Amino acid sequence: MTKIAAGGTLGPALFWFRRDLRDEDNEGLAQALSRHAPVYCAFVFDTAILDGLRDRADRRVEFIWHSVAALRASLQRRGGGLAVLHGDARRCIPELAARLGAVAVHANRDYEPQALQRDDAVAAALAAQGIAFHDHKDQVVFEGRELLTQGGKPYVVFTPYRNAWLRAVTPALTASRDPHYPSLAGEAPQRMPDLAELGFLPTNLLGLGIRPGMEGARQLLADFLPRMGQYHLARDYPGRRGVSYLSVHLRFGTVSVRELVRHARAESGPGALAWLNELIWRDFYFSVLANFPKVADRAFRPDCEQLVFDNDPHLFRAWQDGRTGYPIVDAGMRQLLATGYMHNRLRMITASFLVKHLGVDWRWGERHFADHLNDYDLAANNGGWQWSASTGCDAQPWFRIFNPVLQGRRFDPDGQFVRRYVPELGRVPASDLHAPWTLSPLEQQAAGCIIGQDYPAPVVDHATARKKTLRRYHR
Predict the structure, then answer these.
(1) Range of 66's domain?
(2) Are residues 39 and 158 in the same domain?
(3) Is 195 inside a domain boundary?
(4) Which of 232, 264, 291 corresponds to the end of one domain?
(5) pTM surpassing 0.90?
(6) End position of a domain, from candidates 224, 257, 291
């Protein structure tokens, strides 16, 4: 292959931003700028995606909108620009590339089934015009079949995958490079469509203190790095500031996963190792989706497709609304509705409760999370749900059923988190907070919370639900 100097001579190109909304440590952008001059940049608010969203007040769309605006401003400061389009990307990108006289379109790979179909269609339309399409690895450290067992098969158990990942990681982190910004094509500023023109309403995103864009990611990272050493001790407690809160930024690429891995590996100690472990889990779930695409809508374990769930719509609705009568479950579900965020420990607790207490198919819960999570990512969401439902690879053992009372007492012992999202329990003593139905009528009255009136009684009994689930899964 001919080596091309920075600011290459292969003619004009278009770089298509998708879920990589940053102009630093961006592999595809760096590749385009090293091979081509000039390089135009574009982002498409893709109607094929937006039209499928159920809620017109979607925090993710607003997060993307602000992040795109920030990216556009950053590119302009570097002498470039960003065309922001609204339409079907399968049509918009080939049309724009042809209009600009581009000889190639570059983008970073996306791995979800819908995105793969979109990219195939775009590549075909470009090829028909004599324009090349190049995609690059940026969203993960390792993708697809880069890490395989000695038998040449994808890993289906996390621990050996992690060991292989750690052995291979150092060269992978040196792959990206700083973009050659002088190759960016300047352009006359154009008006960017606002949320209303995209068909969406403003949300409480900014009021929640969520700052989109690269600067928002930088602030969160700067806040987390001094706390990283304690991550292994604080990460499981939703009432504490123990995690990084960077997941939405990873989802939309306003921070590079390589940068986060570099920070984790630069530190020693159990906190940094625990955080790195979570980043490796992310790659693992991407690998599972890539190598076993059936998991998008089916259980990884074929025998689990035979499970018969009750799927009671009233119980499902109680779970969605945070009205199950189990405070730690309800607090997590209400946090999701109010903020679009849910602490990872609560994701495990609430998912396990839906499947193994309420007898509802994990796919119902996965769709609910997909509708509401700011950081929704098919690979991680699916992997987490199948882990909790014991249907996936390297899943939680089917006979392990979280006791929501014990989980609440262990991970929210003083009730700080529950009281924030279930205020009707605000005066219930911490010793009784996670099982308020055990209070006597007089104690309930004194606490200002009558069970069955001010706060629901448990919709199921833990012991009874556990026995039923063991019968369902026994094989």
Answers:
(1) 1-138
(2) no
(3) no
(4) 291
(5) yes
(6) 291
* Residue 335 contacts residue 306 (beta carbons within 8 Å): no
- Report how many domains make up the chain: 3
Q: Which residues pair with 15 in a beta bridge?
A: 41, 106
Find the CATH number of the domain harbouring 48.
3.40.50.620
What is the DSSP pairing of strand 83-87 with strand 104-108? unpaired
Calculate the CA 425 to chain-centre distance. Answer: 31
389 and 383 Cβ atoms separated by less than 8 Å = no
How would you label 376-405 residue by residue, b for 16+ Cβ within 10 Å and e otherwise? Answer: bbbbbbbbbbbbbbbbbbbbbebeebbbbb
CATH number at residue 164: 1.25.40.80
Burial class (CB in 10 A: 0-12, 13-18, 19+), 154: middle
Task: Give the CATH number, domain containing residue 397.
Answer: 1.10.579.10
Task: Judge if 414 and 275 occupy the same domain.
Answer: no
Residue-wise DSSP of 133-159: EEEE--S-SS-TTSSB-TTS-B--SHH
How many other C-beta atoms can be found within 10 angstroms of the C-beta atom of residue 410? 14
Domain assignment present for 360? yes
Alpha-carbon distance 116 to 98, whole Å? 22
The string over 255-280, giving b where at least 16 C-beta atoms fall within 10 Å of a residue's C-beta and e elsewhere, is: bbbbbbbebbbeeeeebbebbbbbbb
Q: Which residue has the tokens 């987490």?
A: 384
Domain identity same for 124 and 167: no
pLDDT (tens digit, 0 to 9) for every residue of the chain, 475 residues total?
233 445 557 899 999 999 999 999 999 999 999 999 999 999 999 999 999 999 999 999 999 999 999 999 999 999 999 999 999 999 999 999 999 999 999 999 999 999 999 999 999 999 999 999 999 999 999 999 999 999 999 999 999 999 999 999 988 786 556 678 999 998 777 889 999 999 999 999 999 999 999 999 999 999 999 999 999 999 999 999 999 999 999 999 999 999 999 999 999 899 999 999 999 999 999 999 999 999 999 999 999 999 999 999 999 999 999 999 999 999 999 999 999 999 999 999 999 999 999 999 999 999 999 999 999 999 999 999 999 999 999 888 999 999 999 999 999 999 999 999 999 999 999 999 999 999 999 999 999 999 999 999 999 999 999 999 999 998 6
Three-state secondary structure call for residue 367: helix
Closest CA to 257 of 143, 427, 150, 333: 143
